[in-house]
Design goal:
Layout lengths: L22 H14 L12 H8 L3 H13 L3 E4 L3 E4 L4 H13 L6 H8 L10 E2 L12 H14 L14 H15 L8 E4 L1 H13 L5 E6 L3 H9 L3 E8 L2 E2 L11 E4 L13 H14 L2 E5 L24 E6 L11 E4 L5 H11 L5 H12 L2 H28 L3 E2 L8 E6 L5 H10 L2 E2 L1 E2 L12 E5 L5 H20 L11
Length: about 500
Protein backbone atom coordinates (compact mmCIF):
# COMPACT_ATOMS: atom_id res chain seq x y z
CA UNK A 1 0.00 0.00 0.00
CA UNK A 2 1.40 3.38 -1.05
CA UNK A 3 1.62 5.97 1.74
CA UNK A 4 -0.29 9.19 1.22
CA UNK A 5 1.98 12.12 0.37
CA UNK A 6 1.71 15.35 2.33
CA UNK A 7 2.62 18.50 0.42
CA UNK A 8 5.79 20.24 1.66
CA UNK A 9 4.99 23.77 2.98
CA UNK A 10 8.05 25.59 1.64
CA UNK A 11 6.80 29.02 2.74
CA UNK A 12 7.57 28.14 6.38
CA UNK A 13 11.31 28.38 5.75
CA UNK A 14 12.51 31.98 5.99
CA UNK A 15 16.28 32.39 6.27
CA UNK A 16 18.00 35.55 7.52
CA UNK A 17 20.89 36.46 5.21
CA UNK A 18 22.11 39.19 7.59
CA UNK A 19 22.42 36.87 10.59
CA UNK A 20 25.78 35.63 11.84
CA UNK A 21 24.43 32.05 11.96
CA UNK A 22 25.43 30.10 8.80
CA UNK A 23 22.65 29.33 6.31
CA UNK A 24 22.98 25.55 6.65
CA UNK A 25 22.60 25.86 10.43
CA UNK A 26 19.53 28.09 10.07
CA UNK A 27 17.93 25.61 7.68
CA UNK A 28 18.75 22.67 9.96
CA UNK A 29 17.25 24.38 13.02
CA UNK A 30 14.08 25.41 11.18
CA UNK A 31 13.41 21.97 9.71
CA UNK A 32 14.17 20.23 12.99
CA UNK A 33 11.93 22.53 15.03
CA UNK A 34 9.05 22.15 12.54
CA UNK A 35 9.34 18.36 12.75
CA UNK A 36 9.48 18.29 16.56
CA UNK A 37 6.59 20.72 16.84
CA UNK A 38 4.48 18.45 14.66
CA UNK A 39 3.90 21.11 12.03
CA UNK A 40 6.01 19.17 9.53
CA UNK A 41 4.31 15.80 9.77
CA UNK A 42 5.63 12.31 9.19
CA UNK A 43 5.48 11.06 5.60
CA UNK A 44 5.93 14.54 4.20
CA UNK A 45 8.21 14.34 1.16
CA UNK A 46 10.92 17.00 1.04
CA UNK A 47 11.74 18.62 -2.29
CA UNK A 48 14.86 17.39 -4.11
CA UNK A 49 17.97 19.24 -2.98
CA UNK A 50 18.25 21.16 -6.25
CA UNK A 51 14.65 22.43 -6.08
CA UNK A 52 14.95 23.30 -2.37
CA UNK A 53 18.13 25.27 -3.10
CA UNK A 54 16.42 27.20 -5.92
CA UNK A 55 13.36 27.97 -3.76
CA UNK A 56 15.48 29.29 -0.89
CA UNK A 57 18.15 30.98 -2.99
CA UNK A 58 21.00 29.04 -1.38
CA UNK A 59 23.65 26.68 -2.71
CA UNK A 60 22.79 23.04 -3.26
CA UNK A 61 25.61 22.05 -0.88
CA UNK A 62 23.83 23.96 1.90
CA UNK A 63 20.71 21.83 1.42
CA UNK A 64 22.66 18.59 1.02
CA UNK A 65 24.56 19.13 4.31
CA UNK A 66 21.27 19.94 6.09
CA UNK A 67 19.52 16.84 4.78
CA UNK A 68 22.53 14.68 5.67
CA UNK A 69 22.56 15.94 9.27
CA UNK A 70 18.81 15.34 9.73
CA UNK A 71 19.08 11.90 8.11
CA UNK A 72 21.91 10.97 10.46
CA UNK A 73 19.87 12.04 13.50
CA UNK A 74 16.73 10.16 12.40
CA UNK A 75 14.49 13.15 11.64
CA UNK A 76 14.44 12.27 7.94
CA UNK A 77 14.59 9.00 6.06
CA UNK A 78 15.67 8.18 2.52
CA UNK A 79 13.42 5.87 0.53
CA UNK A 80 14.98 4.12 -2.42
CA UNK A 81 13.84 5.68 -5.67
CA UNK A 82 11.39 7.94 -3.86
CA UNK A 83 13.46 10.76 -2.29
CA UNK A 84 13.73 12.14 1.24
CA UNK A 85 10.82 12.00 3.69
CA UNK A 86 10.04 13.16 7.22
CA UNK A 87 10.51 10.15 9.47
CA UNK A 88 7.92 8.80 11.89
CA UNK A 89 9.18 9.77 15.33
CA UNK A 90 8.14 8.19 18.62
CA UNK A 91 4.95 9.80 19.88
CA UNK A 92 6.58 11.06 23.06
CA UNK A 93 9.24 13.00 21.11
CA UNK A 94 6.70 15.42 19.62
CA UNK A 95 4.65 15.46 22.83
CA UNK A 96 7.71 16.33 24.89
CA UNK A 97 8.65 19.13 22.49
CA UNK A 98 5.13 20.56 22.58
CA UNK A 99 5.18 20.41 26.38
CA UNK A 100 8.49 22.29 26.41
CA UNK A 101 7.03 24.95 24.13
CA UNK A 102 4.23 25.50 26.63
CA UNK A 103 5.97 25.14 29.96
CA UNK A 104 9.56 26.17 29.17
CA UNK A 105 12.79 24.27 29.66
CA UNK A 106 13.48 22.14 32.74
CA UNK A 107 14.01 24.39 35.73
CA UNK A 108 17.43 25.74 36.61
CA UNK A 109 19.21 24.92 39.83
CA UNK A 110 18.72 27.32 42.72
CA UNK A 111 22.20 28.76 42.03
CA UNK A 112 21.43 29.05 38.32
CA UNK A 113 18.13 30.76 39.05
CA UNK A 114 19.84 33.29 41.30
CA UNK A 115 22.44 34.00 38.62
CA UNK A 116 19.81 34.39 35.88
CA UNK A 117 17.84 36.91 37.93
CA UNK A 118 20.76 39.26 38.51
CA UNK A 119 20.93 42.49 36.49
CA UNK A 120 23.67 42.99 33.95
CA UNK A 121 25.42 46.02 32.57
CA UNK A 122 27.05 45.97 29.14
CA UNK A 123 28.19 47.97 26.17
CA UNK A 124 25.91 48.06 23.14
CA UNK A 125 27.37 47.81 19.62
CA UNK A 126 26.76 50.92 17.52
CA UNK A 127 26.04 53.15 20.53
CA UNK A 128 28.35 55.93 21.66
CA UNK A 129 30.12 54.41 24.61
CA UNK A 130 29.45 56.60 27.61
CA UNK A 131 29.34 53.15 29.19
CA UNK A 132 31.70 53.22 32.20
CA UNK A 133 35.00 51.39 32.38
CA UNK A 134 35.63 51.42 28.63
CA UNK A 135 39.24 52.38 27.84
CA UNK A 136 40.77 54.18 24.88
CA UNK A 137 41.31 51.46 22.27
CA UNK A 138 42.60 53.40 19.25
CA UNK A 139 45.75 54.52 21.08
CA UNK A 140 46.77 51.03 22.12
CA UNK A 141 50.11 50.00 20.49
CA UNK A 142 48.67 47.15 18.45
CA UNK A 143 51.73 46.92 16.20
CA UNK A 144 53.88 46.19 19.24
CA UNK A 145 51.29 43.75 20.58
CA UNK A 146 51.14 41.95 17.21
CA UNK A 147 54.92 41.65 17.14
CA UNK A 148 54.99 40.11 20.61
CA UNK A 149 52.24 37.67 19.69
CA UNK A 150 54.05 36.73 16.49
CA UNK A 151 57.23 36.14 18.48
CA UNK A 152 55.54 33.47 20.58
CA UNK A 153 53.40 32.03 17.81
CA UNK A 154 56.26 31.39 15.38
CA UNK A 155 59.38 31.11 17.48
CA UNK A 156 58.18 29.99 20.90
CA UNK A 157 60.66 27.91 22.87
CA UNK A 158 58.03 27.29 25.54
CA UNK A 159 55.12 24.87 25.62
CA UNK A 160 52.24 27.34 25.27
CA UNK A 161 49.71 24.95 23.78
CA UNK A 162 49.01 22.51 26.59
CA UNK A 163 47.27 22.54 29.98
CA UNK A 164 50.31 23.73 31.86
CA UNK A 165 50.49 26.51 34.43
CA UNK A 166 46.79 26.75 35.29
CA UNK A 167 47.50 29.56 37.77
CA UNK A 168 49.34 31.58 35.13
CA UNK A 169 52.45 31.67 32.99
CA UNK A 170 55.45 31.90 35.37
CA UNK A 171 56.92 34.96 33.65
CA UNK A 172 53.58 36.78 33.75
CA UNK A 173 53.09 35.95 37.43
CA UNK A 174 56.56 37.36 38.11
CA UNK A 175 55.89 40.49 36.03
CA UNK A 176 52.58 41.12 37.82
CA UNK A 177 54.11 40.62 41.26
CA UNK A 178 56.99 43.00 40.52
CA UNK A 179 54.62 45.62 39.09
CA UNK A 180 52.29 45.44 42.10
CA UNK A 181 55.16 45.67 44.57
CA UNK A 182 56.59 48.75 42.87
CA UNK A 183 53.40 50.63 41.97
CA UNK A 184 50.80 49.57 44.55
CA UNK A 185 52.78 48.50 47.58
CA UNK A 186 51.35 44.98 47.42
CA UNK A 187 53.30 42.48 49.51
CA UNK A 188 53.44 39.34 47.36
CA UNK A 189 55.57 36.88 45.45
CA UNK A 190 54.81 35.25 42.09
CA UNK A 191 53.53 32.09 43.80
CA UNK A 192 50.64 34.14 45.29
CA UNK A 193 49.44 35.44 41.90
CA UNK A 194 46.58 33.54 40.24
CA UNK A 195 45.96 34.60 36.61
CA UNK A 196 42.30 34.30 35.57
CA UNK A 197 39.88 35.17 32.76
CA UNK A 198 39.11 38.69 33.96
CA UNK A 199 37.38 40.24 36.95
CA UNK A 200 34.20 38.19 36.83
CA UNK A 201 36.16 34.93 36.76
CA UNK A 202 38.09 36.12 39.81
CA UNK A 203 34.87 36.94 41.64
CA UNK A 204 33.36 33.58 40.72
CA UNK A 205 36.37 31.72 42.12
CA UNK A 206 36.42 33.85 45.28
CA UNK A 207 32.72 33.25 45.90
CA UNK A 208 33.14 29.50 45.44
CA UNK A 209 36.18 29.26 47.71
CA UNK A 210 35.29 31.68 50.50
CA UNK A 211 31.49 31.80 50.81
CA UNK A 212 29.01 29.20 52.02
CA UNK A 213 25.22 29.37 51.70
CA UNK A 214 23.85 31.98 54.09
CA UNK A 215 27.20 33.64 54.91
CA UNK A 216 27.01 37.37 55.59
CA UNK A 217 28.98 39.50 53.13
CA UNK A 218 29.36 43.23 53.52
CA UNK A 219 28.95 44.78 50.10
CA UNK A 220 29.46 48.42 49.20
CA UNK A 221 26.23 50.23 48.35
CA UNK A 222 26.18 51.56 45.73
CA UNK A 223 28.56 48.88 44.55
CA UNK A 224 29.77 46.77 41.68
CA UNK A 225 27.01 44.65 40.09
CA UNK A 226 29.47 41.92 39.13
CA UNK A 227 30.48 41.39 42.77
CA UNK A 228 26.85 41.47 43.89
CA UNK A 229 25.97 38.81 41.31
CA UNK A 230 28.84 36.50 42.21
CA UNK A 231 28.15 36.65 45.95
CA UNK A 232 24.38 36.31 45.63
CA UNK A 233 24.81 33.39 43.24
CA UNK A 234 26.95 31.67 45.88
CA UNK A 235 24.08 32.03 48.35
CA UNK A 236 25.56 34.88 50.37
CA UNK A 237 23.42 37.22 52.44
CA UNK A 238 24.42 40.72 51.33
CA UNK A 239 24.51 43.41 53.99
CA UNK A 240 25.02 46.98 52.73
CA UNK A 241 28.18 48.89 53.57
CA UNK A 242 26.93 52.39 52.67
CA UNK A 243 29.22 54.69 50.69
CA UNK A 244 28.51 58.37 50.16
CA UNK A 245 30.35 61.46 49.09
CA UNK A 246 32.07 61.52 52.49
CA UNK A 247 33.27 57.93 52.25
CA UNK A 248 32.44 54.57 53.81
CA UNK A 249 30.09 54.21 56.81
CA UNK A 250 31.89 51.88 59.20
CA UNK A 251 30.08 52.88 62.42
CA UNK A 252 26.97 50.65 62.39
CA UNK A 253 27.41 48.32 65.37
CA UNK A 254 24.10 46.57 64.55
CA UNK A 255 25.48 45.31 61.24
CA UNK A 256 25.90 41.49 61.51
CA UNK A 257 29.39 40.01 61.63
CA UNK A 258 30.73 39.36 58.14
CA UNK A 259 32.38 36.34 56.58
CA UNK A 260 33.64 38.55 53.73
CA UNK A 261 33.88 42.30 53.01
CA UNK A 262 34.06 43.52 49.42
CA UNK A 263 35.53 47.00 48.83
CA UNK A 264 36.98 49.14 46.03
CA UNK A 265 39.08 51.51 48.16
CA UNK A 266 41.37 53.04 45.51
CA UNK A 267 38.57 54.37 43.32
CA UNK A 268 35.18 53.40 44.67
CA UNK A 269 32.80 51.98 42.13
CA UNK A 270 30.78 53.88 41.04
CA UNK A 271 31.29 57.09 43.05
CA UNK A 272 35.05 57.46 42.47
CA UNK A 273 35.98 58.39 46.05
CA UNK A 274 39.19 57.14 47.68
CA UNK A 275 39.17 55.45 51.08
CA UNK A 276 41.14 57.40 53.67
CA UNK A 277 44.07 55.71 55.37
CA UNK A 278 42.37 55.75 58.78
CA UNK A 279 39.34 53.97 57.34
CA UNK A 280 41.55 51.34 55.68
CA UNK A 281 43.26 50.58 58.98
CA UNK A 282 39.92 50.50 60.77
CA UNK A 283 38.44 48.11 58.21
CA UNK A 284 41.41 45.79 58.69
CA UNK A 285 40.75 45.84 62.44
CA UNK A 286 37.07 45.04 61.87
CA UNK A 287 37.96 42.10 59.62
CA UNK A 288 40.44 40.77 62.17
CA UNK A 289 37.90 41.10 65.00
CA UNK A 290 35.31 39.10 63.06
CA UNK A 291 37.81 36.70 61.44
CA UNK A 292 36.57 37.85 58.02
CA UNK A 293 38.11 38.08 54.56
CA UNK A 294 38.52 41.38 52.74
CA UNK A 295 38.34 41.29 48.95
CA UNK A 296 40.11 44.41 47.66
CA UNK A 297 39.17 45.16 44.06
CA UNK A 298 41.82 47.72 43.12
CA UNK A 299 39.55 49.18 40.48
CA UNK A 300 41.00 52.02 38.37
CA UNK A 301 43.92 52.42 40.76
CA UNK A 302 46.19 53.18 37.79
CA UNK A 303 44.25 56.32 36.91
CA UNK A 304 44.81 58.88 39.60
CA UNK A 305 45.15 62.43 38.26
CA UNK A 306 45.85 64.55 41.35
CA UNK A 307 47.83 63.86 44.49
CA UNK A 308 49.87 60.81 45.37
CA UNK A 309 48.20 57.40 45.10
CA UNK A 310 47.46 55.65 48.37
CA UNK A 311 49.06 52.17 48.53
CA UNK A 312 46.81 49.14 48.32
CA UNK A 313 45.17 47.91 51.51
CA UNK A 314 46.79 44.51 50.99
CA UNK A 315 50.20 45.99 51.79
CA UNK A 316 48.89 47.09 55.18
CA UNK A 317 47.51 43.66 56.07
CA UNK A 318 49.53 41.87 58.76
CA UNK A 319 47.23 38.87 59.31
CA UNK A 320 46.83 37.47 55.79
CA UNK A 321 43.14 38.17 55.28
CA UNK A 322 43.14 40.59 52.33
CA UNK A 323 42.71 39.13 48.85
CA UNK A 324 43.72 41.57 46.14
CA UNK A 325 42.32 41.51 42.61
CA UNK A 326 42.95 43.48 39.42
CA UNK A 327 42.45 43.33 35.67
CA UNK A 328 44.11 44.38 32.42
CA UNK A 329 40.70 45.02 30.81
CA UNK A 330 40.78 48.70 31.82
CA UNK A 331 44.48 49.33 31.18
CA UNK A 332 44.83 47.48 27.84
CA UNK A 333 41.59 46.34 26.18
CA UNK A 334 38.52 44.46 27.49
CA UNK A 335 38.56 41.46 25.13
CA UNK A 336 42.03 40.47 26.40
CA UNK A 337 40.18 38.77 29.28
CA UNK A 338 43.13 38.59 31.64
CA UNK A 339 42.84 39.47 35.31
CA UNK A 340 44.58 38.30 38.45
CA UNK A 341 44.09 37.55 42.13
CA UNK A 342 46.75 37.83 44.83
CA UNK A 343 46.02 35.40 47.65
CA UNK A 344 47.71 34.80 51.01
CA UNK A 345 50.41 32.08 50.74
CA UNK A 346 48.39 29.47 52.64
CA UNK A 347 45.55 29.72 50.10
CA UNK A 348 47.66 29.43 46.95
CA UNK A 349 47.42 25.65 46.59
CA UNK A 350 43.65 25.62 47.10
CA UNK A 351 43.16 28.37 44.55
CA UNK A 352 45.36 26.49 42.08
CA UNK A 353 43.08 23.46 42.31
CA UNK A 354 39.91 25.53 41.98
CA UNK A 355 41.28 27.42 38.97
CA UNK A 356 42.08 24.10 37.35
CA UNK A 357 38.65 22.64 38.06
CA UNK A 358 36.71 25.70 36.89
CA UNK A 359 38.76 26.36 33.75
CA UNK A 360 39.07 30.06 34.59
CA UNK A 361 42.55 30.42 33.09
CA UNK A 362 43.34 32.39 29.90
CA UNK A 363 45.43 31.46 26.86
CA UNK A 364 49.11 30.88 27.65
CA UNK A 365 49.99 32.46 24.31
CA UNK A 366 48.34 35.73 25.37
CA UNK A 367 49.95 35.48 28.79
CA UNK A 368 53.43 35.08 27.30
CA UNK A 369 52.92 38.14 25.09
CA UNK A 370 51.57 40.14 28.04
CA UNK A 371 54.56 39.14 30.18
CA UNK A 372 56.85 40.63 27.51
CA UNK A 373 54.64 43.70 27.17
CA UNK A 374 55.09 44.41 30.88
CA UNK A 375 58.73 43.39 31.35
CA UNK A 376 59.97 45.29 28.27
CA UNK A 377 58.43 48.55 29.48
CA UNK A 378 55.52 48.93 27.03
CA UNK A 379 52.89 48.62 29.76
CA UNK A 380 54.34 51.45 31.88
CA UNK A 381 54.68 53.69 28.81
CA UNK A 382 51.09 53.01 27.76
CA UNK A 383 49.80 53.73 31.29
CA UNK A 384 51.59 57.10 31.42
CA UNK A 385 50.09 58.11 28.05
CA UNK A 386 46.58 57.04 29.07
CA UNK A 387 46.81 58.77 32.42
CA UNK A 388 47.58 62.09 30.70
CA UNK A 389 44.93 61.50 28.02
CA UNK A 390 42.18 60.61 30.50
CA UNK A 391 42.94 63.62 32.69
CA UNK A 392 42.56 65.89 29.64
CA UNK A 393 39.40 64.14 28.47
CA UNK A 394 37.80 64.38 31.88
CA UNK A 395 38.22 68.16 31.95
CA UNK A 396 36.76 68.54 28.45
CA UNK A 397 33.92 66.13 29.17
CA UNK A 398 32.86 67.95 32.35
CA UNK A 399 33.05 71.30 30.56
CA UNK A 400 30.86 70.03 27.69
CA UNK A 401 28.34 68.57 30.15
CA UNK A 402 28.15 71.87 32.04
CA UNK A 403 27.44 73.75 28.82
CA UNK A 404 24.90 71.35 27.32
CA UNK A 405 23.34 69.29 30.11
CA UNK A 406 23.40 71.43 33.27
CA UNK A 407 19.60 71.89 33.13
CA UNK A 408 19.16 68.19 33.90
CA UNK A 409 22.51 66.85 35.15
CA UNK A 410 25.03 67.87 37.81
CA UNK A 411 28.51 66.47 37.25
CA UNK A 412 31.91 67.31 38.70
CA UNK A 413 35.54 66.38 38.08
CA UNK A 414 37.08 63.51 40.03
CA UNK A 415 40.63 62.80 41.20
CA UNK A 416 40.60 59.29 39.76
CA UNK A 417 38.82 56.81 37.54
CA UNK A 418 37.48 56.42 34.00
CA UNK A 419 33.88 57.52 34.65
CA UNK A 420 31.88 60.13 36.51
CA UNK A 421 28.51 60.07 38.24
CA UNK A 422 25.98 62.61 37.03
CA UNK A 423 23.09 63.33 39.38
CA UNK A 424 19.78 64.62 38.06
CA UNK A 425 18.81 68.15 39.00
CA UNK A 426 15.14 67.21 38.63
CA UNK A 427 13.41 64.08 39.89
CA UNK A 428 13.43 61.31 37.28
CA UNK A 429 13.84 57.54 36.93
CA UNK A 430 17.29 56.80 35.50
CA UNK A 431 16.08 53.61 33.79
CA UNK A 432 13.50 55.66 31.85
CA UNK A 433 16.16 58.17 30.83
CA UNK A 434 18.50 55.32 29.89
CA UNK A 435 15.81 53.98 27.53
CA UNK A 436 15.40 57.46 26.03
CA UNK A 437 19.18 57.68 25.51
CA UNK A 438 19.17 54.29 23.78
CA UNK A 439 16.76 55.63 21.19
CA UNK A 440 19.27 58.40 20.46
CA UNK A 441 22.13 55.90 20.08
CA UNK A 442 23.83 56.67 23.41
CA UNK A 443 24.67 54.25 26.20
CA UNK A 444 25.35 54.94 29.89
CA UNK A 445 24.83 52.97 33.09
CA UNK A 446 21.90 53.85 35.41
CA UNK A 447 23.14 54.55 38.93
CA UNK A 448 20.12 52.81 40.49
CA UNK A 449 21.36 49.41 39.26
CA UNK A 450 24.24 49.60 41.71
CA UNK A 451 21.91 49.45 44.74
CA UNK A 452 20.60 46.19 46.20
CA UNK A 453 19.13 47.09 49.60
CA UNK A 454 18.28 50.72 50.31
CA UNK A 455 16.10 52.88 48.03
CA UNK A 456 18.28 53.52 44.98
CA UNK A 457 19.68 56.90 44.07
CA UNK A 458 18.89 58.04 40.53
CA UNK A 459 21.69 59.15 38.24
CA UNK A 460 23.87 58.35 35.25
CA UNK A 461 27.32 56.74 35.37
CA UNK A 462 29.10 58.20 32.35
CA UNK A 463 32.35 56.86 30.95
CA UNK A 464 34.53 59.38 29.14
CA UNK A 465 37.89 57.62 28.78
CA UNK A 466 37.29 55.64 25.60
CA UNK A 467 35.85 58.33 23.32
CA UNK A 468 37.60 61.03 21.33
CA UNK A 469 36.44 64.64 21.25
CA UNK A 470 34.34 64.24 18.10
CA UNK A 471 32.42 61.26 19.51
CA UNK A 472 32.16 63.02 22.87
CA UNK A 473 30.59 66.08 21.25
CA UNK A 474 28.16 63.94 19.24
CA UNK A 475 27.26 61.82 22.26
CA UNK A 476 26.51 64.79 24.48
CA UNK A 477 24.34 66.31 21.73
CA UNK A 478 22.40 63.03 21.52
CA UNK A 479 22.08 62.89 25.29
CA UNK A 480 20.76 66.44 25.29
CA UNK A 481 18.17 65.46 22.68
CA UNK A 482 17.14 62.49 24.83
CA UNK A 483 16.74 64.71 27.89
CA UNK A 484 14.68 67.24 25.93
CA UNK A 485 12.38 64.47 24.70
CA UNK A 486 12.09 63.14 28.24
CA UNK A 487 11.30 66.62 29.54
CA UNK A 488 8.62 67.13 26.90
CA UNK A 489 7.04 63.78 27.76
CA UNK A 490 6.92 64.60 31.48
CA UNK A 491 9.68 62.20 32.58
CA UNK A 492 11.36 64.96 34.57
CA UNK A 493 9.31 66.53 37.32
CA UNK A 494 8.83 70.21 36.59
CA UNK A 495 10.82 72.62 38.71
CA UNK A 496 8.61 75.06 40.66
CA UNK A 497 8.62 78.54 39.14
CA UNK A 498 9.75 81.44 41.28
CA UNK A 499 7.58 84.41 42.13
Amino acid sequence: MTKCRTRFPSDMLVLDREASVPMHRQLYEKLRSEILAGRLKADTRLPPTRLMAEDLGVSRNTVISTYDALLAEGYLESRSGSGTWVATLPADAVTARNALDKTGAPSLSSRGSRMAKQPRDRTIPGHIAFHPGYPEIKSFPFSTWARLLKRHTRYSQEDLYGYHWVTGHPRLKTAIAEYLQASRGVDCGPEQVIVVNGTQAALDILARVLVDEGDVCWMEEPGYIGAQNALLSAGARLVPLPVGRDGWSLDDEARPAPRLIFVTPSCQWPLGCVMRMEDRLRLLQIAERHDAWIVEDDYDSEYRFRGRPIPAMQGLDKSGRVIYMGTFAKTLFPSLRIGFVVVPPHLADGFKRVASNTGHYPSLLLQAALADFISEGYFATHLRRMRRLYAERQKVFVSMCHRSLNRWLSIEESDAGMQLVGRFTQAAEDETLWAAAQKQGVNFSPLSRQFFSSPPEQGAILGYAGIDLKAMREGIACLRAAFIDAENSGTFEKQPTSG
